[in-house]
Specification:
The chain is built from eleven helices and 16 strands. By secondary structure, it is of the alpha/beta class. The structure holds zinc ion (ZN). Zinc ion (ZN) binds next to helix 2.
Amino acid sequence: MRALSLIADRKLELADIPSPRPPAADEVQIRVKAVALNHLDLWGYRGMAFAKRKMPIVVGAEASGEIAAVGSDTATFRSGDPVVMYGAMTCGTCKACRQERDNLCENVGGIMGFHIDGFARDLVNMPARLVIPVPQGVPLRDAACAPIAFATVQHMLFDNAKLEPGETVLVHAGGSGIGTAAIVMAKAIGCTVITTVGDDAKAGKARALGADHVVNYRTDRFEGAVRKLTGKKGVDVVFEHVGAETFNGSLLCLKRGGRLVTCGATSGPSTTISLMRLFQQQHRIIGSFGASLRNIRESLAKMASGLSPVIDTEVPLAQFERGLERLESRQVFGKIVVDF
Ligand SMILES: [Zn+2]
């Protein structure tokens, strides 16, 4: 079978490797159909000073597929069932896992495609408890965007920021995979969405997606625009993932008692904030990473009810690298999906 491995910094190799053994009693074997790309894949591809990778490693952290074979104790799955897979090898037994807070697992074995072999291969064995059925009517291409992109946003906006209908939310980088998901999810519950983009073409697309106000951050300061748009009040929630370049501006955009939730620091990992302002304004800053299995089920349910992910590009497995380069160039609106 085919497997795509990272063999050195910025070097991928598509090779023929032996198929996996038949699934163990508590496992299922999945025929991978689509892998969606995330910034996480870029971190692995480029190499990161502060996160160790194993190499060579099969890439791909977010994927969908079909059940190819089932273990003897996995009665809920049948051959041919469409599924998605959790992107990390959690233990399933620690307190966090038992409370369905999988992304806080105390004995996590690693992130797929980053610490342990990922999904960019024809067949993969997974513990059945980390495999989630895809509801009828959701294409596998869309479902591939559920385990990380949609579920991360679900976890950020609803578990962490507790976004409520009618609130106003600032979504940074509205053209990114998670930015597009945040726009559609916030609009779906009746929020007012202000979003930032880096060019006018993306501004039009963000508006078409439902954003109420779009700020081109290259020509306008978003802090000033938000102040104007909210009558100097500020927003209830900021959806952050840009990092150092925008973080303080984001805090300035929050109304008193507002919540900032962040899952990334693409523009830089460090900044200085005013603690005086933090407590006087009663702001909440919440870090968010990954999602729970429940968040993936919630995301798939949203897709089944018509909230489709925005797909920027589809590329074949042999062009995985081209997909990564496109993601790195930031000339993207939505998700890049690798088809098998
Ligand atoms: Zn655990």
